[in-house]
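Comment thread on ticket #2218

A.B. wrote:
> Attaching the input chain for the structure job we discussed in standup.
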Amino acid sequence: MYVQHETRHAELATHMEELVKSAVPWVEQVTGLPLTHPRFDLVDIDGLATAYRSFVRRQMERDTAGLDLTRWEQARLLARPQAAEFTARRAGMSKKPVLIATSIGKPSTLIVPEAAGLYRLCETPDLLCDLLVRSLAQQAQVIAGAGQVVPPPEWPKIPAPSHPIVQLSEGHARWTSGRVTPEITGITRPSRHPLAKRLASSIREPMAARRAARASALVDQAVKARGLLAFNAVWSTAGLAPTRDEFRHPRRWIARMPLS
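C.D. wrote:
> Ran it. Output below, let me know if you need it in another format.
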């Protein structure tokens, strides 16, 4: 486990490291997924933008390998990483954890502590634990599929928050945290601390929260119907993730899932 940090965030990094060590076995048990070498990087906005640009470039190279692109598509391909960096700087990405992966599917979660007052999360241990557990669940998804399913492809366009794989990933992370965070913190209800409310509103927008709740319910239904082993095939099997229509009709997706 590795937490990279700037000197002024050493206290937060130390606290995160302690929580991650406690959380990893629980996340592995609840999800049925291995969590080898989880990584968190505490960065400033420049560090986030640079890392995200490199991640998008790697994703684009992977997604377009072997394709016969037109000159216009090649120009789009070259411009996309720079556009991703601009998005990271300007579009509020720094207010929430950002999942990236290397070319061989090794995940890392980027966090900008100053962006939403995250350096004060030590005051709200349940919220910090929730953030870390969700991030660990998403890293486990990447590891399970060697980065082939999560994060989703960036070409021909960067996936929106409503992308089925994005929804499933975040819903699974929420489902995992609902089972792991109370075991670690002993707190069964989210913190009502004013800081917690402000941080939660900056990290999770209302529409994203509704999508994640719907996806979390879908995960719970699928795991109960098919079991963890069958469900986890979704992270390594192309085309097995639910479609947008199947989010509205869970039984259709469960019907085409493999049996344990």
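A.B. wrote:
> Thanks. Noting for the ticket: Residues 10-31 form the longest helix (22 residues).
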